[in-house]
Amino acid sequence: MIHEGTNITGLRKVEDGSVISNLHTSKWRIFTDNGRDRFLHGKLEEAEKLFLSALQEAKEGFGERDPHVASACNNLAELYRVKKAFDKAEPLYLEAIKILEEAFGPDDIRVGAALHNFGQLYLVQRKLEEARVCYERALKIKRQVLGPDHTDYADTMYHLGTVLFLQGKEKDSAALIQDSIRILEEGGQGESITCIRRLQYLAQIYIKSNQPAEAEKVQRKMLHILELSKGWDSLETVIAAEGLALTLQSVGSLKEAQELLERCLDARKTLLPEDHIQIAANMVHLARVKMLNSNQLRKMNISEAIAELDKAKDLLGSSIRIARQVLEKLMKQNRSHQYYEMSGASGKDAHAALVILLQSLNALGLLETTKQELQESREENPCGADAENALSQCISAFKEFGMERSMSYSPEVKAEYLSCLKHLASLMIDSRTNGKQQSRRASLQELKDEIKHVEAELSLKRKHRS
Question: Which of 172, 167, 177, 170 is nearest to 4 (CA)?
Fold first, then answer.
């Protein structure tokens, strides 16, 4: 999911004309400017010390209830929000708002800005009702002071929309985000990064609320903007096209979905190294479309249906090879550095590679099952072990790579592993193999036990998230 406002744009300088120049006020300005500079360069520890000093100097130079103290409180609160020291940030935001209300009244724009920042603190903690109250009040103030077409008003409107979506109010959320996009477009910012991100979020809302037609409209608009502004030499354009292709696939528009995914794959092979994990992911998407094509062809031409499956199998073979290479390389690097678990960029790459590896092997198992059915319909004698072999490799891959702690906790990894377990169990139940029945029954029981265990883990994670 995509959020604005998690950066450092909330730093404020609140000033009025009644500054009494003295040593404390001079120090306040120096500490504030230097703190902002350190903050903007990611030197948070240095910035914290400077902002603490600025707060103390503001109190001594301007007085405890002066707006400059509110500014200093806000700057320090923003730093603590970025550091995720939420318990330290909250009282500072509250103090800043109280001082500003006392100095300028409850409907002043500076109060609105502070409330917006306070809403961000609650949003990042998923304290959604508290965030909603802050954003709604900030939105009301900004509309009164700035007017309904101001980009700052649109910014708070977008953030309120994200909160409402997380609260399950999809219709209200979409309306607010659409309006925030309109304001940007009418203000000449329709091709800005901010506008593109809002379009992406709006498309996600429509996809998650099962409105693919609306999602498709937004995704086509976004792709058109990126094609004109950045062209196909940009990964942003490729990712937007891929998103549209997946929506088209979901509604059965397989021809256009395949054309887009093929163009995405060609672009990625030009822009990225040949063993990049994005190329593997693209191949999995394309393989799935070809499997769906095969499913449509089986009623008319079994030979063509099998030919499509063979093309899909080649793509899955390549995606399996790339994903495994990425994982083995990262694991080797990890062991050489003697880290207990991967983190940062390498951890994300390993997670993505494992998900793609499991998806590819799971899809290969389904492909082999489908191919066996088609060959049986032509009275051929296929080998039924290929599907089981692919799914067994999927389980082995999870045990080889997925036990690394940072990935074993991933619901996405576990969900793909669970799908593989269920698919293999179903195959074993339906198997007509007569030999080794006792050992197969034992293996099947192990699978069923593992399925129950993983389902319980995923259920527990869902409860914790809610």
Answer: 177
Predicted confidence band at 436 (pLDDT cuts at 50, 70, 90)? low
Q: Look at the block and give the residue holding tokens 């929309």.
A: 161
Give the closest residue to 141 by CA, choosing from 109, 166, 118.
109
Phi, psi of 100 (to 5 degrees): -65, -40
The pLDDT value recorded for residue 380 is 57
What span, in angstroms and rounded, lies between the C-alpha atoms of 249 and 238? Answer: 16
Distance (Å, whole) CA 282 – CA 111: 47
> How many Å apart are CA 59 and CA 67, to the nearest integer?
10
Determine the length of the chain.
466
pLDDT at 357 over 90: yes
Beta carbons within 8 Å of 464's beta carbon, 6+ residues apart:
none
Residue whose pair of structure tokens reads 């690097």 in the numeric block: 333
Rounded Cα distance, 246 and 288, in Å = 10
CA dist., res. 202 & res. 208, Å (int): 10
pLDDT at 177: 98
For residue 377, the model assigns a pLDDT of 67
- Identify which of 168, 110, 116, 167 has the alpha carbon closest to the alpha carbon of residue 137: 116
Question: pTM to 2 decimals?
Answer: 0.83
278: CB partners within 8 A, 6+ apart: 235, 268, 272
Residues of the chain by 3-state class (helix, strand, coil), percent to 5? 80, 0, 20
Structure tokens at 342: 């991967």
Q: What is the pLDDT of residue 160?
A: 98
Residues 6+ apart with CB under 8 A from 145: 107, 108, 109, 112
Nearest-CA neighbor of 354 among 322, 376, 386?
322
Neighbours of 403 (CB within 10 A): 9
Question: Which residue, 5, 9, 382, 392, is CA-closest to 160?
Answer: 5
Q: Could you tell me which residue, 389 or 219, shows the higher pLDDT?
A: 219
Q: 20-29: long-range contacts (C-beta < 8 A, 24 or more apart)? A: 20/61, 20/62, 22/61, 23/61, 24/57, 24/58, 24/60, 24/61, 24/62, 25/57, 25/61, 25/62, 25/68, 27/53, 27/54, 27/57, 27/61, 28/54, 28/57, 28/58, 28/61, 28/62, 28/68, 28/72
What dihedral angle (degrees, nearest 10) is formed by the CA atoms of 253, 258, 261, 263?
Answer: -120
DSSP string covering 345-356: HHHHHHHHHHHH
Residue type, 251: V
